[in-house]
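step 4 of 6: structure.
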Amino acid sequence: MEPILAPESIDLIALAPVIVLSFFAMMVLVVDLFGGRNKTLLVFISLVGLLMTAISAFAKNPIPAYSFNDSYIVDHLSLFFICIFTISSALAILLSVEYNEREGIRAGEYYALILFCTIGMILLASSTDMIMIFLGIEIVSISLYVLTGIRRDNHRSNEAALKYFLLGAFATGFLLYGMTMVYGSTGSTNLFKIAEVVQNPSAQSNPLLLMGLVLLIIGFGFKVASVPFHMWAPDVYQGAPTPITAFMAVGPKAAAFAAFFRVFAETFPEMAPSWEILLSTIAVLSMFFGNLGAIMQTNIKRMLAFSSISHAGYILIAVIAKNSLGGSSLLFYMLAYAFTIFGLFGIIIILGRKGEENLEIENYSGLAYRHPILALSMTVFLLSLGGLPPFAGFIAKFYIFSAAIQQGLITLVIFAVLNSVISFYYYLKVVVFMYMKEPEAEFQISLTPLTLFVVFIGVFVTINMGIFPGSIIALASH
Amino acid sequence: MFLTLITFLPLIGALFLVFMPKESVAAIKQTALAVAVADFLLSIFLWTNFDNTSHKMQFELNVPWIEAWGINFHVGLDGISLLLYVMTTFLTMICVIASWDVKIHVREYMIAMLTLSTGMLGVFIALDLFMFYVFWEFQLIPMYIIIGVWGGPRRVYASIKFFLFTAVGSLLMLVAILWIYLHIQETTGVATADILYITEHLSAPLGTQKWLWMAFFLAFAIKVPMFPFHTWLPDAHVEAPTAGSVILAGVLLKMGTYGFLRFNLPFFPQASYEFVPMIAWLSIIGIIYGALVSMVQVDLKKLVAYSSVSHLGFVMLGIFALNPYGIQGALIQNINHGISTGALFLLVGIIYDRRHTRLISEFGGLAKIMPKYAICFMIVALSSIGLPGMNGFVGEFLILLGVFQVNGLWAACATSGVILAACYILWMFQRVMFLEVKNPKNMNLKDMNVREMFTVVPLIILIFWIGLYPKPFMDTFDASVTHLVSKVNPDNFRPKQEHHDNDHNDKQNEKHGEHARLITPTEMASLNHTLQMPALIKE
């Protein structure tokens, strides 16, 4: 019997980031066993692990390199995404340290789970095979289910985890079903082979394949929280520990978009006429539902959950554009989004109190007159999310819109810019509370150094990427 | 480099203020004032070094900004932007003085003011579409904060309305900008957003031009604001603090008219020509509607705000007369409106500081109690009406002259706006200044103090200066306007009723001559230059 994998196709160097990170993740688990109550060492190991992962990702040269029978790829997209993942995981861990102390989350697995989740994300962004994509999604999802419910004594957290798990499993079913249909109609799970098959016009009109695509869209749509598969997002975002909320909004979402992009924009571009309209509808709906839903919210985490739904809509435009500009705009957007979101959630953590309290928007009344720097930072983040120059969010939107207009998707862009206006309304609402209302009660906040550090990194990068985006754009548009 | 420095000087000043302790209020105000004065004086240097004879960009700086996209940091001034630029620094200075009595969060106020100044200056010098857009949006934030934090009772509503209205228009403009950027890249192979390059090379079919034109139009029309898009203005003006209103009327609205001159006309000359009737009628409706609504206002500030709608209608009408007189008139009227309406807002602010009300019915007979105030108010009010010898006359006259060449009916309709302006201004003046002093609260009002004189008197000087000897101002944009008109409206575009088959050029000259004879000798001097205009175009 022939071996499934020829030995020469096993390329461990290409897989280096996954291997390195797995090693460190397991080390975290083992050290936790002997480390007692002090988790500082775990944090240190995790951060070093992430750093090593990022470095090892560049070990493979030249790129693009294909290995494991073309099911794993090291290319520009995956490298950039690995950087985004490691950065966002590192920021999430930094945010967690003081938060966990305050909230009494003592589990050492917490850090290991974040690392495992990161492994899943790396696989997701690097795989060019349906099976690998599925595995990546599962690794990410299962880690997230646990992380969401890690505050065992908090019923909101439990509810969120259970909801996320049930709906997530359901969506995974759709995804898998879609994959089998695509496999059934094209005879392969490998994206390159599928792409070859669908060159043929007769294959394109195969109803089984079309059905498979629809199911894939449902599956991915759930993972990126786009309308109408978004119902889990507000509850889960609110129930999860705040650093995990931030993490969820950035890392796993970026990973899902990477896979989304690989499958739809790179594998099925010929079939665009059949999926474009569906994705466009989803994008427009996401933007409208997300933004209109956010207007109603009084809890900042829920508001940001809705806002992230609308951002999924914007990012989908990059997938729909399916050109190289779309790919690089996706990279830029996710990077800008990562720093903005982590900075923003850093402030939310600082202002929060034990037991996830003080998260109503009205709790921020008059913040500008007690802690002007924090209020200013928050304003920067919110305006960046809204897409106002001179912040990173503006360049990111500009990038995505230009990709779409290059592809002639003007209507979609007009919908998107109108949505930006709607989003200004609720982002400014927070600014109104911070600047234009008198403080109701004294702010009892502890300016914890690590969290503040993340906030300042966020502000710095958000402004820097807004005013001097040149170098990042050059990297993204390789 | 010099231009960049002047533009960013206020921002640097603002950053400096961030590090000052917020308790030392006096030092903060003095620093802000020093920065504003320095900026104004430096911008005067720009004017004195400006070459009036050239329509080209001057004080240019062009350095790469986002190389991957071919986007440059490209700045420069020409005749169209120079005066607006100087007026911005000037009004910033006036506003810092006028804000001396701000009670709360003085440091933050001055920071916002100076940041706003940089944002506005940036809009006028940007020669790259991308950069223009960045500044255009950027100045929203400080203005939003100024209205929202230091404004009146309904400030939150007004500030969000201001922000969202502007954002709607400008985001659609962003789509158009992107389209142009990609189109230029496709047709010429150069990835650039350079305004001058685009002006030269943009070629799109008329249908597309119209769509793009509409996108830009919406952004600028909301900003101006033109008739159906004006509803944010009264709210913003009424709720904004005095200095905010002055800046809003003086500079922010001008960014809209500037946008038409910098983008709509040169980018889409054909589309602009096609849309002339629409703009004209909207402007005329704006002129008359603004005036009529002004007349029935009970709140002084709201009255001035609606009068802005009316005045800006004149400016728009002048621009879209698409001839030298009209555009020159529009440009000078831009400045006039900034001065007159700015001064009106300052004066209303002065009385509001004393009485904390702006209702006309609360006042009456102030001329007896506050004679200095009454004199200043009289001068400013008359200039706003457009009395000969004052600045408003020069602008309105030129605009009407320009419009008359295009369409007599439009000119006639617009003229009624001048009459209505006299009605609402003089009636308001009568109710506030004359009659008996009925309200006992007004008995002990103090007259203007020295600081307040310092804010208003420079504006009054300018009112007379432009009114009596506008040449130094008019000279700055002569060349640019000629160039613009020759590009946008070459002779074949001339409206039909102007054509007298054979020697229509001579005929026209004659016509101009007739008009010129109607004006005062002083006006004549200033207009001498413009009389050459059609000949210049011919060349």
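step 5 of 6: annotate
 - The mean pLDDT of chain A is 89.
 - Chain A touches chain B through 32 residues (CB under 8 Å).
step 6 of 6: archive
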